[in-house]
Amino acid sequence: MVLSRRRFLASLAGLAALSLPGAALAAPPGKYALAGRVLSGADLRPLDNHAVLVENGLIEAVVPAASVADRPVIGVPGCTVLPGIINAHCHRIHTPEDRRKRWLEHGVTAVGDPGSPLDAMADLARSPAGTTATAAFSGPMLAVPGGYPLPVHDPKYGLVVRSPREAGDAVRRLADRGATMIKLAFEPGVMPRPWPMPDPATARDACDTARRIGLTVRCHVQDLAGLEPALDAGVHTVEHVPHRRFVEGRPRPVLDRDNAVMPAYARLLERMARDAVILTPTLDVLSRSLWNGPALYEPVRAFAAMGGRLAVGNDYPYLRTEAGMVLRELELLGRAGLSGRDALRAATVGSAAACGFTDRGIIARGMRADLLVTDNDPAADPGALAAPLHIVKDGVFVA
């Protein structure tokens, strides 16, 4: 028998659990299943008339819905079950309470904060199960003296390192504070006098130390001059789209006259695709700048066509980007040539990988039950993500 969520939870947890304002609904005891069209993320094909089996906050299996006989089944005709959306690149929402209000209650079940002050790290590390969006975080960016982010952001967002030894020590200190990733920047800026970038030895030591500890390495790159040094250092992700190129203070194109990616740039994108380096384009924030145009979208289109791995992040709160579901970022990925299915995969599987999450982002046995239920297929109708029927976090019904 298929039950509504309210009837199911009322029967198992009691109506009192449904009346607690602002609190996560109690985790259903025993077992339950979410039935509908399942987009697992592990399989590009939708699985019609299937059910996701959940117990104790974890996913047990995906099976034909008609075969479920050992637990209640929650479902709505025509609904879709998919992994929770992950915003892999956002900032400034640190406390569990804020992450719940700004992200989780809109269907974003996890976030990546690649650049936060030291004093925010303890709050980002607090993610009580079933109550807030889980956070991956880096703490301050590693910066060389005078390098990005120091010229344009508050100094608390940068941690200065002057040598390979200092870089390795800084990575270890951040890990001791709970960091799950680190962030570098290869960004010369747009001024006539370029900002300094990390030297190869310092960047490589930071990356090697992070890899040994098990941290993901993310790197800010907007000027094409920073892309090759970042790849040489061994980063896992490239944040933003390298969309500009300054030579002696003068802008130079990154596209040819036909708006195709120039050969030298294409070779770097091919290297990224070959080495499984993830691109988080943050098109939402960049499209609000003076740089909006083909130089943002064509590199993403070319990288996707090469089989490159993409993640989704909107760089909230910069340039009036919004918290909540990342609908505009998904729309702009469509403008860059991604299908609805590929954009969803970037927002789940790709974003999980960019953040270093290994226990969420797909629907598979043993993964966290971070799930959304929508009334339509969001691959065909992204607007379905604006108002999910159900939001499940660690097996707990949040909405």
SSE arrangement:
Blueprint: E1 2-3, H1 5-13, H2 15-18, E2 31-38, E3 47-55, E4 58-64, E5 73-83, E6 85-87, H3 96-102, E7 108-113, H4 121-125, E8 134-137, E9 141-143, E10 158-160, H5 164-176, E11 181-185, H6 200-213, E12 216-220, H7 227-233, E13 237-239, E14 245-247, E15 250-252, H8 263-274, E16 278-280, H9 283-286, H10 294-305, H11 327-335, H12 340-355, E17 371-374, E18 390-393, E19 396-397
Parallel strand pairs: 1-5, 2-5, 6-7, 7-8, 9-10, 11-12, 12-13, 13-16
Antiparallel strand pairs: 2-3, 3-4, 5-17, 14-15, 17-18, 18-19
What distinguishing features does this structure have?
399 residues; alpha/beta; Urease, subunit C, domain 1; TIM Barrel; 2 domains; 4-stranded parallel β-sheet; 12 helices; 19 strands
